[in-house]
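--- STAGE predict ---
source: upstream dedup step, 1 unique chain passed
mode: sequence only
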Amino acid sequence: MLSNRRILLIVSGGIAAYKALELVRRLRERGAVCRCILTAGGAQFVTPLSLAALTGEKVFSELFSLTDETEMGHIELSRDADLLVVAPASADILAKMAHGLADDLATTALLATDKPILVAPAMNVRMWEHPATQDNLALLQHRGVLTVGPNEGDMACGEFGFGRLSEPAEILTAIERFFSADGSLKGRRALVTSGPTHEPIDPVRYIANRSSGRQGHAIAEALVRLGAETTLVSGPTQLPDPGGVNVIRVETAQQMQAACEQSLPADLAVCAAAVADWRIATAADRKLKKGDGGPPSLQFTENPDILAWLSAAGNKRPQLVVGFAAETGDVVAQAQAKRDKKGCDWIVANDVSLGTDTFGGTENEVHLITKDGVATWPRMTKAEVARRLVERIGDVFQTPDATAGAKA
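--- STAGE serialize ---
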């Protein structure tokens, strides 16, 4: 599968750098051509000689090496590869990538490349959980950088938690999926809803929720990577439009339903938006003021149920309809009941209780519910949730008799 694929492996600092040697061995076994950049930090844990022996290629480390620049300039080095892989990716190199710093060969190559990048983070659990690291990672993901891991477990520093580098086999699988991911949904049309809806009270006020849209946008990005022609119907968010996606921006639930209807037919639909259940029956056409006789009396009416509507769309019904259930208690039980009530094929349930940081955060912990049962996934980035979910969707459409509700 990786025959003659050109991988540029960047090994940054951290005790987990020793795993890069095993990753190189596995890449070579599968026919990949592997070149390495070894950072100064990475060289504290593995040697250039070890990497050179395993790759059969010269190892690069110096930005201002006259010999290296003559043989393989850093621009050519960064663009000659089919994929750049940073493993391990330290907190430092992630921060530099996020902010466009280029103070050594590795970061210069990463900034100069026009090729896809996959990072495998590895660091102390506190460093991983720090808001700066999470913000940097979220920014990179929005730019299209792929991620794998980190895993949870014991660390060399004696602490326990997320921050362990993914095993070489896991990183290899992510690389293989990248190269095989451009066809499983090719020719399929996908519809995704994302973000909150804003239901007006008057010209300046509205009812909304805390959804950031990160999960829905990540799903749209992942669908495009598998070749799907993807339409994203998004409520108001602060996120950039995902590359390669047809984006329709809306404000209200009624507008979102209308945009979805215009986007049919579709082979699959993923309803990740947090649509407001209610709207004001008649929004005021002028700003409500304090002196207008006390607090206003608001009359509510029910919004359209987009998930149920899509699930019952007759001959326009997508082959696979996936809903999301944001719950605050008895998450799985409530999501199972929602799946039965709405008539969708799959439900992705998550806990949005206070303190979970699901709404607005960069991570998610979900339960995938199908007719065959419940699959509980560990807490991971929303981009990784999207990747896993879309891979399951791709599996459905790869089967000869692709049917909605296939096993999760």
